[in-house]
From TrEMBL, chain A:
Membrane topology, from the record: Multi-pass membrane protein
Species assigned in the record: Frigidibacter albus
Entry's transmembrane regions: 40-64, 208-227, 239-255, 293-315, 349-370, 390-413
Cross-referenced InterPro entries: MetI-like, MetI-like_sf
Name of the protein in question: ABC transporter permease subunit
PROSITE patterns linked: ABC_TM1
GO biological process: transmembrane transport
TrEMBL record, chain B:
Species whose genome carries this gene: Frigidibacter albus
Protein's cellular compartments: Cell inner membrane; Cell membrane
Lineage, top ranks: Bacteria, Pseudomonadati, Pseudomonadota, Alphaproteobacteria, Rhodobacterales
Family in the record: Belongs to the binding-protein-dependent transport system permease family.
GO cellular component: plasma membrane
Keyword presence, Lipoprotein: no
Identification of the protein by name: ABC transporter permease subunit
Length: 425, 306
């Protein structure tokens, strides 16, 4: 609080307004304001610190992981040093082979040869066994090492293998991003497209975008009439109907996915009903699950409340007399809707569509359970590389690309709608 | 929604079509949730209505799947149901074990999220708050960023700091779930505070209350409904979360959704539907609580009650 003294000589020294203790008013106000800012900030700091530790730093770790993998360089120090000293394209000499054999022997001793082989295998498939079998025989190898290794397996002379070893001899590489974009390096280090049968990530990214757009569209089509009905009904009635929207919203995701599995199964409720009604024959039951249809149906249902709620909150305050005015001026009901009502609901459409799209792009659980092979999204592939193939760096690179996409959409959402306008329930 | 008397026949047809469409969409929304309830009482191990169920024959219904929830994982499930049998349930039954884990993780992550989130929301709703928009964007982002990305990042981070060796049970998963719950607390509490009349706290100050008294006697009672519904959101988020648990929880930190996930992927049986039914009942209770709180909050703030 700033006490201002206006009367008497003290307060107006040299034409300046001052406070009771003689400080210039401007300074005192700035001081008080800075203190209020500090106080407000102090309330937020604990949470900000928490989020930094449990969210920002882990995501930083993920980004680091996507460009850093020392599986080869940490376990093969001598050959890595040889690569450092020579330049790309240098043919491996006897010294290189000697360093390689020494490293393989040491790695086999430390039981890390599998890690080394796996790292090289990411870049050039079919090479893991090359390293492990060399590891088993490393003790018996005698100079000259070049001949000894080539006797073991002629692939050791392959320039492509040496090119790959050179590229993985540095712990930092952008190769995982290349792999995530269906690109690869040839033996000269140039970036080329991956062989046709290996281009799966681009296809999956496209599928994720396409399915998310489709689900967003379906949600919009289903949500619009319902939100409109809720908005024009009297509050008592619409609050009652709102329960039908909010109950799915509050029900566990796994429960909803399970119910859809029950409904969509070949021996499930929907198929049984259709057979009983004679719509489809008992032999030709429709396969609605473990394919894209399953993913689309279940995700549309799960994300529908996220579309209805923003639409409802925009539609509720719309004044019905605008449409009535349009009608009285001669517009047909379709024109009145198209020219008068629809434009007023655009902010709700934008908010709902962006929210649903953002949420569906990163969906994991539902596609994993009801999607089968053709209904998998990019998140499922990230989980696959994290849990099954254990290519963590590739998983991190895929996650980083997905994250970049989501953050762009989030930024767009903030610009267009503003995150402060996000409402729940 | 009444049709005006001057409506043309075409409009009348459309009006009724519109009502039918809306009804169909409401059925689409609610049917999958309600359908699991009767199916969980199925006497047969099927996921569809048997003929006996459809003819309301009592033999078609049974509690066997609920019974299975109790006995699954027990040492001696077939013994007489006396005192020691129930002790066995509490000690060994898998679903009891995971339910206990879910409650512990949910409780502590809710406390963490609500405490930190409410404090931050108080700061964020002050007009003097610098960089308000950017800070808000960072605090809300755990809700927007796909959970699989956060889980992957936390997996790397936790294995780097070796959190499992710290000897604090549940620590990693509680922090992870609190992170996911924080955006909900921030959103609900800032929404409550946006309608807050700041002259009330100034009035309290002018009547001689110190900041602490003002907070506990004036601000807190007014924003409490928002805080509680934020806490409920945070609890539900944790209670329903499975990706984080899949990625970072230890094998003795499995939760109900994780166990459901196992059940769905491996040996899907109607026992899953029994769990689902229980969870639906829980969510109905939660929804009712939030609705009551929302109306109370609107009354307190003088907004028209619904």
């Amino acid at each position: 609080m700033v006490a201002i003294e206006t009367s008497g000589g003290e307060g107006l020294r040299g034409g300046l307004l001052t406070t009771a203790d003689g400080k210039p008013l401007k300074q005192a106000l700035a001081h008080a304001q800075a203190r209020a800012r500090r106080k407000a900030l102090l309330l937020v700091v604990p949470l900000l610190a928490f989020i930094v530790i449990t969210f920002v730093v882990p995501i930083g770790q993920l980004l680091f992981r996507s460009i850093h993998n020392d599986g080869f360089s940490a376990n093969m120090p001598q050959i890595s040093a040889w690569f450092d000293e020579t330049k790309a394209g240098d043919a491996p000499d006897e010294a290189a082979y000697a360093a390689l054999v020494a490293d393989i022997a040491a790695a086999a001793e430390a039981r890390t040869i599998g890690v080394v082989g796996t790292r090289v295998n990411y870049e050039l498939s079919g090479t893991r066994s090359l390293f492990t079998s060399a590891g088993r025989n490393a003790e018996d190898l005698e100079p000259p090492y070049r001949e000894a290794l080539l006797d073991l397996n002629a692939k050791w002379g392959d320039p492509q293998l040496w090119g790959v070893m050179r590229s993985v001899s540095s712990a930092y590489s952008a190769n995982f991003y290349l792999a995530a974009l269906d690109l690869a390096r040839d033996e000269n280090g140039d970036i080329v497209r991956a062989p046709e049968d290996r281009r799966i990530y681009g296809m999956l990214f496209m599928r994720t975008l396409w399915l998310s757009a489709l689900i967003t569209g379906l949600c919009l089509i289903l949500a619009y009439p319902v939100a409109h009905l809720l908005a024009v009904l009297p509050l008592a009635k619409s609050n009652l109907l709102m329960i039908l929207v909010l109950l799915p919203f509050w029900t566990s995701l796994l429960v909803r996915t399970t119910s859809w599995m029950v409904m969509l199964q070949e021996q499930g409720v929907i198929n049984n009903t259709m057979v009983a009604l004679g719509l489809v024959g008992n032999e030709s039951r429709i396969q609605m699950m473990y394919n894209q249809a399953g993913t689309i149906i279940a995700m549309t249902h799960i994300l529908l409340p996220f579309m209805i709620l923003p639409l409802y909150s925009v539609m509720r305050p719309i004044n019905p007399s605008y449409v009535r005015a349009a009608r009285s001026l001669g517009a047909t009901s379709w024109t009145a809707f198209r020219r008068v009502y629809l434009p007023q609901t655009l902010p709700g459409i934008g908010a709902g569509a962006l929210l649903v799209f953002i949420l569906s792009v990163g969906y994991y659980i539902t596609p994993a359970l009801v999607g089968g092979a053709s209904g998998q999204l990019i998140s499922n592939l990230i989980a696959y590389h994290m849990q099954d193939s254990l290519n963590w760096s590739l998983a991190a690179a895929l996650a980083a690309l997905l994250l970049a996409g989501v953050l762009i959409l989030y930024w767009l959402y903030d610009r267009l709608i503003g995150i402060d306008n996000l409402k729940l329930g | 929604m009444a049709l005006p008397i001057y409506a043309s026949p075409l409009e009348r047809v459309w009006h009724w079509t519109y009502k039918v469409i809306c009804t169909a969409i409401f059925i689409f929304l609610i049917a999958p949730i309600l359908i699991v309830i009767p199916l969980s009482f199925n006497a047969e191990p099927y996921f569809t209505f048997t003929e006996k169920m459809l003819s309301f024959d009592p033999e078609g219904y049974s509690l066997r799947w609920y019974d299975m929830l109790l006995t699954f994982g027990m040492q001696a499930p077939d013994g007489p149901r006396d005192w020691s049998w129930w002790r066995d349930v509490l000690a060994n039954a898998t679903w009891f074990d995971v339910a206990w884990n879910s409650i512990i993780i949910g409780f502590f992550s809710t406390i963490l999220a609500t405490g930190l989130g409410t404090l931050a929301a108080l700061g964020l709703s002050r007009s003097e708050m610098p960089w308000r928009r950017s800070i808000m964007a960072v605090l809300i982002s755990p809700m927007i960023v796909p959970i699989i990305i956060t889980a992957t990042g936390l997996f790397f981070f936790y294995s780097k700091i070796e959190i499992q060796k710290w000897g604090v049970p549940y620590l990693g998963i509680i922090m992870a779930h609190a992170t996911l719950g924080i955006p909900f607390v921030i959103i609900t509490v800032t929404a409550t505070l946006s309608g807050f009349d700041h002259s009330l706290s100034r009035a309290a100050a002018s009547l001689g209350a110190n900041p602490r008294t003002t907070f506990f006697k004036v601000i807190m009672p007014l924003i409490l409904p928002g805080v509680v519904s934020g806490a409920l959101f945070a609890f539900v988020t944790s209670f329903d979360e499975v990706v984080m648990v899949l990625f970072i929880a230890g094998h003795d930190e499995q939760t109900i959704p994780r166990q459901m996930w196992n059940g769905i992927r491996e040996q899907i049986s109607p026992a899953i539907l029994a769990v689902a039914t229980i969870l639906v009942v829980v969510s109905i209770a939660l929804l009712a609580t939030v609705e009551i709180l929302r109306r109370r909050s609107e009354k307190l703030r003088g907004v028209t009650a619904g």
